[in-house]
Amino acid sequence: MSSGMDKYDIKVVKYFIIAAVAWSIAGMLIGVMLAAQLYWPVLNFDSEYIQFGRLRPLHTSGVIFGFVVNMLMGTSLYIVQRTGQTRLFNKSLSWMVFWGWQLVLLLALITLPLGYTSTKEYAELEWPIDLLIGLVWVLYAILFFGTIAKRKVHHIFVSNWFYGAFIIVVTLIFVINNLAMPVSLTKSYSVFSGAQDAIVQWWWGHNAVGFLLTAGVIGMNYYFIPKVSERPIYSYRLSVIHFWGLVGFYTWAGTHHLVYSSVPVWVQNIGIVMSLILWLPSWAGAFNSAMTLLQNKEKLKTDYIMLFFMSAILYYCLATLEGPLLAIRWFNMIAHNTEWIIGHVHSAALGWVGMSAIAMFYYFIPRLWGKEQLWSNKLIKLHFWLAHIGIALYAIALWVAGIGEGYMWLAQQENGSLVYSFVEAMDFKAPWLFVRFFGGACFVFGLLIMVFNLYKTVSMNSSVSKEGSADA
């Protein structure tokens, strides 16, 4: 069996997965710190370096580019080898991609707390780092598509279609959104202005969610869900329909962030309509993954890795129903700029991406290190319930806070004056911000338990490798 490990380039995959786990902890710990600051502002400690405005982009960058991109790079380079039955296109190139990406993250860790920022959401890094991101991303694309080109089987597995779309679309939207005129080494200004800048920014911002946090993770799940359930994909044809539906409609939906703005109404309407259409391919894909798990009902009853994947699918359903709902003008009028939006984002990020990643870590890491089983099944059960309690508290608290906040902002006296002051709205949501902090802390505590469990697993003496077997 161990000879199977020699067939593929595994070491770089291990490094990417370790980096993903490390950044998941770091990024989410910063998130908990930010949640604490919102309830206890004194935790800013009057320091310019750790106040909310500087740590928030570090949190989002750490989670999106540190945790998720490392995870997607690692799993994509593993899956493209396994499904293509070939080694990576170039081993040295894979290490250039790994260390280049870690350099990007190190520079983000240094520059964002110092206040160097482009001010664009999810694209805050300044132009020299953007150039490095572009270089590393091109190398990653060459590595991934080069490996596909040298595959030894005719068929391209559906996971690789999703990974390929994630690479291509992120390249396109990142480059265009970050077009800027440098004025110094640490400052630049966008070539776009006004409404144009807003449209391009949310073309990027929403599709960073769509093709990093959605398409990439779907590609990962289409490989690992059949593996953990020990059954084939329920409908391979539906998985391809899911792919084309997502690619065809998602890129148009970003302007639903600009409803009731100075952007032309027809552009707003495109975002609304495409958001509503997206509900169909999203739920079709969720149904496909759920049915894949349900093909092995007996294992599903007791296997907490399968239950983590099923939970991720249910949160995906919730997020892809709530997203189109919030794009509708009436709901958007209440929800926009309130805590409801934050609740929506995090129920998707923690519920869909987080649960998928946790399931993948529990399934993949033992096998990557040649271990037959986890060190403690009791700890994975504890983690499962901590994660669910954390997400439920987080999301429900911000739904209540956001809906109440939205209504208070809109309430008017007969003479048109506001019924509630801004301070009264803040007082209303304050206790819910504490619940949000507590829920986030529960989720992160669960991640720490996972890290301990996985560390003990890979440290165990028994090392019977499944890497070369058909079910690895």
Written account of the structure:
The chain is mainly α. It has a single domain (3-458), classed as Cytochrome c oxidase-like, subunit I domain (Cytochrome C Oxidase, Chain A, Up-down Bundle), CATH 1.20.210.10. The protein has 15 helices and two strands. The chain has helices at 3-6, 11-39, 52-84, 91-111, 127-149, 158-177, 194-229, 236-250, 265-294, 297-302, 304-327, 329-335, 339-368, 377-410, 422-458; strands at 180-184, 187-190. A two-stranded antiparallel sheet has the order 1-2. Strand 1 (180-184) and strand 2 (187-190) form a beta hairpin. Keywords: Cell membrane, Copper, Electron transport, Heme, Iron, Membrane, Metal-binding, Respiratory chain, Translocase, Transmembrane, Transmembrane helix, Transport. It catalyses: 4 Fe(II)-[cytochrome c] + O2 + 8 H(+)(in) = 4 Fe(III)-[cytochrome c] + 2 H2O + 4 H(+)(out). Its cofactor is Cu(2+); heme b. Its EC number is 7.1.1.9. The chain crosses the membrane at residues 12-40, 60-80, 92-115, 127-149, 161-183, 203-224, 236-253, 265-284, 304-321, 341-365, 385-410, 430-455.
Task: Sum this structure up briefly.
Helix content is 74%, strand content 2%. The protein is mainly α. The radius of gyration is 22 Å and the shape is globular.
- Per CATH, what is the topology? Cytochrome C Oxidase, Chain A
How much helix is in the residues?
over 70%
Number of strands: 2
- The H/E string reads HHHHHHEEHHHHHHHHH
The largest sheet, given as strand count, sense and whether it forms a barrel, is: 2 strands, antiparallel
Question: Roughly what is the average pLDDT, rounded to an integer?
Answer: 94
Quaternary structure of the protein: single chain
Report Rg.
Answer: 22 Å
Per CATH, which architecture? Up-down Bundle
Uncertain spans:
463-471
Helical/strand content category: mainly alpha
Specify the CATH class.
Mainly Alpha
Pfam families: COX1 (PF00115)
Family: Belongs to the heme-copper respiratory oxidase family.
Pathway: Energy metabolism; oxidative phosphorylation
Protein name: cytochrome-c oxidase
